[in-house]
Write a structure and sequence with these properties.
The protein has a single domain, classed as Rossmann fold. A seven-stranded mixed sheet has the order 3-2-1-4-5-7-6, with helices on both faces. It has 256 residues and is α/β, with parallel strands linked by helices. The chain binds S-adenosylmethionine. The site of S-adenosylmethionine has 24 residues, from α6. InterPro entries: Methyltransf_11 (IPR013216), SAM-dependent_MTases_sf (IPR029063).
Length: 256
């Protein structure tokens, strides 16, 4: 039984019971240190998506972000790179939010276990209830509940441009710790590839909706060099739309 099927079967059991059974708890959304304080409101976003006749992910892409098809395009590129053909049995996602990448990931592969680390409690609860994923206690940048070398695919999308440098950097160490030999680490960061002078001007004049921590940049070379010290090689990279501009998706593979 995969994560999505399991989710349907536990739908009625309620988030609390599920969490109690699995021994995990969700920490409320007040501890996302230094990042965007609150993710988009749960109830209002769900209502708006329903009114538009769209899935919540497609609503966020098309209506809220003005980038229709953006999530699917990243998933398509990851498929082309063979990320799902590797048949990941364990997936871990940091900051899944509404689950727009999570839902599409579960259409591409059938992991036995899908762990999430998410600070926004209403969204985490919704993802547990809808997709049967496991919400791990989330504090700062720790993946402590996840054992070393236990995850086939570790991912984060549109998270590391909303948190501070230290929050992202600490997560990098943790992602490298939990990935298994031969597994992949996928995340996007706003690198210098995405920051030519014209784009910086665009961000300065049109971007950043009132959050000091968004969008945060991260040097590409820093990521590549750091992950190399963990035995993780950059396998591929591509640019994906974000807000008024873009981020760069980096795909690392951990040596066997
Ligand atoms: C911009 S949203 C992106 C959500 C989702 N990945 C997407 O692309 O739609 C950033 C997400 O990271 C979560 N977040 C913020 N700080 C976090 C932290 N320290 N650990 C885990 N999640 C965090 C937020 O609650 C939110 O869900």
């Amino acid at each position: 039984m995969n994560a999505a099927t399991r989710g349907t079967s536990v739908l009625k059991s309620g988030v609390k019971r599920l969490l109690g059974r699995t021994g995990f708890d969700i920490v409320r959304s007040t501890n996302n240190r230094g990042g965007v304080d609150d993710f988009i409101p749960f109830e209002a976003t769900m209502r708006a998506a329903k009114a538009a006749g769209l899935s919540v992910g497609d609503h966020i892409d098309a209506v809220m972000n003005g980038t229709p098809g953006a999530t699917q395009s990243t998933i398509d590129q990851l498929r082309t790179l063979g990320v799902y053909a590797a048949k990941p049995e364990t997936v871990l996602e940091i900051g899944p939010g509404s689950g727009r990448y999570l839902e599409k990931t579960l259409k591409e592969c059938s992991p036995e276990r899908y762990e999430i680390y998410e600070t926004a409690a209403p969204w985490a609860g919704y993802l547990v209830e809808t997709f049967g994923v496991i919400a791990r206690p989330t504090a700062g940048s720790s993946l402590a509940p996840t054992p070393d070398g236990s995850i086939d695919l570790v991912q984060a999308h549109k998270v590391f441009n909303t948190v501070t440098f230290l929050c992202a950097a600490r997560y990098f160490f943790e992602m490298a710790r939990v990935v298994r030999p031969g597994g992949r680490i996928v995340f996007d960061v706003m690198t210098e590839t995405c920051l030519d002078p014209a784009t910086v001007r665009t961000w300065a004049t049109e971007g950043g909706p009132g959050h000091d921590s968004y969008p945060a940049a991260m040097p590409r070379g820093t990521c590549v060099d750091l992950f190399a010290t963990f035995g993780c090689t950059l396998e591929a990279s591509f640019v994906a739309p974000m807000g008024v501009a873009s981020t760069e998706v980096l795909v690392f593979v951990k040596e066997k």
